[in-house]
UniProtKB/TrEMBL annotation:
Organism: Dictyobacter alpinus
Annotated ranges, domain Aminoglycoside phosphotransferase: 22-262
InterPro entries referenced in this protein's UniProt entry, alphabetically: Aminoglycoside_PTrfase, Kinase-like_dom_sf
Pfam families in alphabetical order: APH
Protein's recorded name: Membrane protein
């Protein structure tokens, strides 16, 4: 991570005089975040991963996601949006770095294992609020279902075998299932793609700050955009139930769905289609982490190691999801 010139950041954004040094914030799989205290308040500074800045239109995508967050906040959603510069842009270009600045929100990030039923209900209600807005943004590009390509699995696992990566053989042995899961995702997309809206899309534990048990704040809107509401609900419920840690709690999953319907949310699509949609999202993340572990879109060996770790974690999650798919589908159908 390059050193950030705090004085210049404060001057650019009119943030006041800095008090003390930047404090690194733990967590974050892609970007670096620091805490900055100034004479005008406390802020979070996010340094975007330089390895990802070479992609075309990346910064414009961040501008759009922050616009979504800002519009959500204007409409009463507890969304933490980036603070704009005087010209309205949210991207701070500084010494070859791209930075985003946010108001600092006090509160913990709860792990899936520490979420209780009341907080789970609250989270479900918040999703219902998001979906009820039916936010429209004329300049948002039209929705396109993301396709996965069979040959990617073959190519990446061969490359990993050549490098003797730990996940190479386990993932390669899964090729038949990976292709089967990909087909299920593509088929679900023909149905899910008919019911889309603009939302956060990634309400996982690392993206929710709890200022109190009843007051969650949604941060990290970088993935904001089009999503099927049932798919977002089910993915959120699965993640917070603990499926990515290997110990899912059915009562938390159900409490999120209960909170959603109690707040007026309507579950339109089938549990099976929603689960297969979630499967595709995680397959996409698996491909991304596989590529990172092979040295793509990284700037350090540490980031490669994160890719290796996340690859193994996502394989375990997909195995667990498919092993208990029928049960998760049944739980969703109870609330339709």
């Amino acid at each position: 991570m390059k050193t950030i010139d705090v004085e210049r950041v404060c001057t650019m954004g009119g943030l006041g005089k800095p008090r003390g040094e930047l404090q690194a914030v733990a967590g974050g799989l892609l970007h670096h975040v620091c805490r900055l205290e100034t004479s005008q308040g406390v802020f979070a500074i996010k340094q975007l991963n330089p390895a990802m800045m070479g992609e075309p239109d990346t910064l414009d995508a961040y501008r759009m996601s922050e616009k979504i967050a800002h519009l959500m906040a204007e409409r009463g959603i507890p969304a933490v949006a980036a603070l704009p510069l005087a010209d309205g842009d949210v991207i701070y270009n500084l010494d070859g770095m791209a930075l985003l600045v946010y108001p600092w929100i006090e509160g913990p990030l709860l792990s899936a294992s520490s979420l209780d039923l009341h907080a789970a209900n609250t989270l479900g209600g918040l999703l219902a609020q998001l979906h009820a807005l039916q936010l429209t943004i004329p300049e948002l590009p039209p929705f396109v279902w993301k396709h996965l390509h069979d040959e990617d699995w073959d190519i990446l696992t061969f490359q990993a075998s050549d490098l003797n990566l730990a996940w190479a053989n386990p993932v390669r042995s899964l090729l038949p299932q990976l292709l089967e899961w990909t087909r299920a995702y593509e088929e679900a997309g023909t149905v899910l793609g008919q019911h889309m809206l603009v939302s956060h899309t990634n309400c996982e534990p690392g993206n929710v700050i709890w200022s109190s048990e009843s007051s969650p704040w949604l941060i990290d809107w970088e993935a904001a955009g089009w999503i099927n509401p049932t798919m977002e609900l089910v993915r959120t419920a699965l993640t917070w139930s603990g499926i990515t840690t290997g110990q899912p709690r059915e009562e938390i999953f159900s409490a999120i769905l209960a909170g959603y319907t109690a707040a007026g949310g309507v579950i339109q699509d089938t549990g099976r289609d929603a689960l297969h949609g979630c499967m595709g999202t995680w397959l996409g993340w698996l491909l991304f982490t596989m590529r990172r572990s092979l040295g793509e879109s990284v700037t350090s060996e540490e980031e490669e190691q994160i890719g290796i770790r996340e690859t193994s974690k996502m394989v375990a999650t997909l195995r667990l999801l498919t092993a208990h798919e029928a049960h998760w589908v049944e739980l969703v159908e109870r609330w339709r």
